[in-house]
Design a protein that fits this description.
39% of the residues lie in helices and 17% in strands. It is an alpha+beta fold. The strands form two sheets. Strands 1, 3, 4, 5 and 6 form a five-stranded mixed beta sheet that branches. It is globular and about 50 Å long.
Length: 174
């Protein structure tokens, strides 16, 4: 979906991706405009959202080594970036990240996106693989403007601030 959006847009457009589990809140138009402005004014023309999970706990060591960030503290010791909500202008550099994300997701028989164990020794605190790891590490290694993933339920933050947030990670299921 994101790759298709990149093909159908110009560099000065803005692509907004939200997972199907999100609900939009039209009452929070001002905060949403801040997201748009931040993405467009960003050095990288991208806005990402960091969650509460530390990268090394959720990213396979094989992926970190493949992307040459295995010992890079600014990537591996920082919060993971969400792949369920992000905004970006489809510049050549951003399109290249999207292409690399798609390519790595299927590389080596899906090794970097599956639950197959790493060949390399995992971090001692590694918990499990998260599918968003590839995109998270790619953006952090290159650079992205980021802010707190305020739209997800963290210790009732979402409930307390719901009226001010432009989208909610409701994860509604039938």
């Amino acid at each position: 979906v994101v790759k298709q959006a990149c093909r159908d847009t110009r560099d000065d457009d803005l692509i907004i991706y939200l997972d199907a589990g999100f609900a939009l809140n039209p009452s929070a138009r001002n905060r949403f405009q801040e997201y748009l402005d931040t993405a467009q004014e960003s050095e990288w023309r991208m806005l990402s959202f960091f969650n509460i999970h530390t990268e090394y706990k959720w990213t396979k060591k094989d992926l970190a080594l493949r992307l040459e960030v295995g010992t890079d503290a600014r990537v591996m010791n920082t919060s993971q970036l969400s792949s369920g909500f992000f905004l970006f202008c489809p510049t050549d550099e951003n399109k290249a990240i999207i292409e690399k994300w798609a390519s790595l997701a299927v590389a080596d028989n899906y090794h970097f996106s599956s639950d197959a164990p790493s060949k390399a020794q995992e971090h001692p605190d590694f918990e499990a693989h998260r599918p968003q790891s590839i995109f998270s590490v790619l953006r952090k290694a290159r650079g992205t403007t980021s802010t707190f993933y305020e739209v997800q339920l963290y210790d009732q933050y979402l409930e307390a601030n719901k009226s001010k947030l432009p989208a909610w990670a409701t994860r509604l299921r039938k």
